[in-house]
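User: structure tokens for this one?
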Amino acid sequence: MSLLAAALLLLGGAFSASGADTPSEPLTAAAGAQAAGASSHAIGVRHFDLARGKDRPLPTTVWYPTRGSARRTKGQAQRDAAPLPGKLPLIVWSHGFYSNPQMQEGMTKFLAESGYVVVAAAYPFTKKDTPKFNKLDVPNQSLDASFVITQMLQPGNPLADSIDPGRMAAVGHSGGGTTTDGLFTVHRDPRLRAGVIFAGRPAGKYQGSPVPLLFIHGDKDPVVAYEQGRTSYAANPWPKAFLTIIGGEHGAGTNDAERGHHQAMATLLDFLTWALDGDDSARLRLSNDATLDGVTRFESVGIYSTSTSTTTTTTTATTAAPTMRPSLEPVAAG
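Assistant:
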């Protein structure tokens, strides 16, 4: 583990290495998207000076696919480039404590190269170098995230015409994972069609119309206990999946060179493709892409069946009943 990663781990929110003995080849965004069967677009980037009141500045960075190949541009974002034509799905990304969107570019660029508009604000009281750090401000960050989505959809925003408001999801890590959980609980945003929570804590009771949620957590996380992720999963009555990184610590599953990373990235893209696009082939790939014996463990409720819980620890795919769209009826927690 690098000194920087160790420092971030102690601070409790930015990405950190797992410390696992099993070496893992670093995975670039372009290589990750390619490994998961996704396109690997060149990316553009824009910056917006947003604010939700005088005391809540929300400088926001947006990464998005543009014309060209990520391989050709070597992952470098092109400032103010024109987005790809057509309507693109949106992801609101939430960073962890003592972090910011730029520190988590591995993930935001990965998602943009995979075809998503990724909107990420720096939260005023949990970002890196904030003079007034306050972990109790996390519930307000869910409102910030919803505000940022609204601003992106406003007529006149240079990216508004490129966003499909019917295909939007929230993803976050650590404190950002808890922020994401809040978007489906205490501050439900009904516009969101899916959520992915990396190493987050429970934020409240799930409410509103059911949407699929994916939880990713290392079972040796010293910052946000694995049991807290399990608590959220158990409380969620909707279609859901849980990817356990065996031996993974706080950065498990993020865009670091860790054990289980390849499986986490493939699972993330499969899940979003199924949940937002109704791509049944992505749903059928989930179990197989998610599992590697001794490295990851995958389980789900309401994705392959509305009545059973499925757990896999090998690369054998689970038999799945055919369906083209997520079943959004509440199901028993498993």
